[in-house]
């Protein structure tokens, strides 16, 4: 199938890629023309429909008939998906994604956000959700609104943007309240409050402490949260050689910590020592692996 797709003319691959990005949803011929810059889009779509590659609904909107998963993995889909993210964001910023238009484009937008999460296009995804999520609420498309906000929350979390993550949780609480799900609304508000409290505590520490103290305090949080920390294994005997039968679990390691204070990124390392040594006798053929742990934390003061 991949060879069959690769053998298609570029214009056809672009149209199919745009449709693959939105999954099972559909796009209008005008939207396809904007995304692909194909001149005779109507003729091209008609030909693709005749060959069983595209279907059209009663509104003449186009959807992919087959090869969806294969096309989603192509470079054409990646470049087209990025253009579609920008296109939808621009429409929303210009006020063109009206409630009436969302009747047609809501599923395509959700398909696009699913693709963006799959390809870890976190920045574009977060911007899109922030820009157009309110339109879903205004249009009373509550379930789709919740799905959209949840994907925005995951994008913010992946980017380490705690402020945006708190905001997404608050919006999820509002949408859940409108949906009549009080328990979900309370859960989201509780998570938002906990995250905001942690973030404010970290920022206050970052403003009042020097980099070394911040690193030490942040590392303490990491160790508490990790519930046991990290262990590296030192393999040795009294004469400096390696004994294949015995390991000593020296529960210590050097952990790098990266954080931001007043716009400057600081990286330091701290030795983590956990309680005690223990000796374990192993068969001579045992293969012992070494593990290392890295911890990265942001502490960015408010602008």
Index terms:
303 residues, mainly alpha, Arc Repressor Mutant, subunit A, 2 domains, three-stranded mixed beta sheet, two-stranded antiparallel sheet, 12 helices, 57% helix, 11% strand, elongated, disordered C terminus
Describe this structure in words.
The chain is mainly alpha-helical and 303 residues long. It folds into two domains: 2-147 and 175-181, Arc Repressor Mutant, subunit A (Orthogonal Bundle); 227-296, no CATH class. Helix content is 57%, strand content 11%. The chain is built from twelve helices and seven strands. α7 packs antiparallel against α8 and α10 packs antiparallel against α11 (182-208). The longest helix has 27 residues, at 182-208. The model is unreliable at 216-255 and 272-303 (pLDDT under 50).
**Can you count the helices?**
12
User: Got a strand count?
Assistant: 7
Order of helices and strands: HHHHEEHHHHHHHHEEEEE
Give the CATH topology of the largest domain: Arc Repressor Mutant, subunit A
- Tell me the name of the CATH class of the largest domain: Mainly Alpha
The low-confidence parts are 216-255, 272-303
Order of strands, main sheet, comes to 5-4-7
How far do the termini sit from each other?
52 Å
User: What class, by secondary structure content?
Assistant: mainly alpha
How many structural units, i.e. domains?
A: 2
Fraction in beta strands: 5-15%
What gyration radius follows from the Cα positions, in whole Å? 26 Å
Looking at the overall shape, the CATH architecture of the largest domain is Orthogonal Bundle
Q: Tell me, rounded to a whole number, the average pLDDT.
A: 76
């Amino acid at each position: 199938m991949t060879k069959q797709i690769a053998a298609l003319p570029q214009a056809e691959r672009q149209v199919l890629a745009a449709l693959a990005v939105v999954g099972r949803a559909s796009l209008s011929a005008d939207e396809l023309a904007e995304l692909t810059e194909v001149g005779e889009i109507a003729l091209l779509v008609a030909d693709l429909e005749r060959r069983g590659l595209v279907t059209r609904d009663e509104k003449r909107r186009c959807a992919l008939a087959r090869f969806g998963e294969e096309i989603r993995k192509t470079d054409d889909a990646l470049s087209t998906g990025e253009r579609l993210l920008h296109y939808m964001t621009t429409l929303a910023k210009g006020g063109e994604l009206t409630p009436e238009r969302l009747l047609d484009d809501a599923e395509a937008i959700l398909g696009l956000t699913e693709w963006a999460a799959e390809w870890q296009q976190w920045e574009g995804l977060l911007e899109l959700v922030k820009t157009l999520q309110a339109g879903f609420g205004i249009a009373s498309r509550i379930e789709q609104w919740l799905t959209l906000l949840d994907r925005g929350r995951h994008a913010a979390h992946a980017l380490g943007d705690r402020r945006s993550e708190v905001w997404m949780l608050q919006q999820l609480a509002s949408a859940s309240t409108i949906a009549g799900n009080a328990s979900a609304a309370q859960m989201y508000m509780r998570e938002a409050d906990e995250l905001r409290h942690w973030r404010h505590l970290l920022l206050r520490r970052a403003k009042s402490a020097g980099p070394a103290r911040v690193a030490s305090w942040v590392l303490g949080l990491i160790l508490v949260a990790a519930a046991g920390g990290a262990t590296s294994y030192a393999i040795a005997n009294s004469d400096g050689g390696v004994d294949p039968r015995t390991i000593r679990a020296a529960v210590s390691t050097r952990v790098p910590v990266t954080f931001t204070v007043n716009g400057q990124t600081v990286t330091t390392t701290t030795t983590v020592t956990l309680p005690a040594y223990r000796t374990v006798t192993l068969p001579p053929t045992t293969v012992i692996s070494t593990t290392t742990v890295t911890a990265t934390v942001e502490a960015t003061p408010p602008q």
